[in-house]
């Protein structure tokens, strides 16, 4: 039986490094051969694509740094 574990990253405010740390954690977990995913329940300050959809910048940063293949829509719905 495989066990699922969670890591919850919190901080005292905006721009304290939560996204940066999350990206590095995921990168290191992948390098160790583990499967990991990212989830951010809510985010403000999203940019819009040319099509008008929201682009979650934090999730995009984590995806870029960590190299995970998880779709942005799953990372920050």
How would you describe what is shown here?
This protein has 77 residues and is mainly alpha-helical. 13% of the residues are buried. The chain has helices spanning 18-31, 57-66, 72-75; strands spanning 47-48, 54-55. The chain has a two-stranded antiparallel sheet.
Widest sheet, order of strands: 1-2
Largest sheet report: 2 strands, antiparallel
**What's the gyration radius in Å?**
13 Å
Structural class, please? mainly alpha
Helix-strand topology string: HEEHH
Question: What fraction, in percent, of the residue positions are helical?
Answer: 25-40%
Shape: globular
Q: How many strand units?
A: 2
Low-confidence stretches: none
Strand content: 5-15%
**Terminal-residue CA separation:** 29 Å
Number of helices: 3
Rounded mean pLDDT score: 89
Structural topology:
Layout: H1 18-31, E1 47-48, E2 54-55, H2 57-66, H3 72-75
Short descriptors:
77 residues; single chain
Structure in a nutshell:
The chain has 77 residues and is mainly alpha-helical. The chain has helices spanning 18-31, 57-66, 72-75, and strands spanning 47-48, 54-55. Helix 1 packs parallel to helix 2.
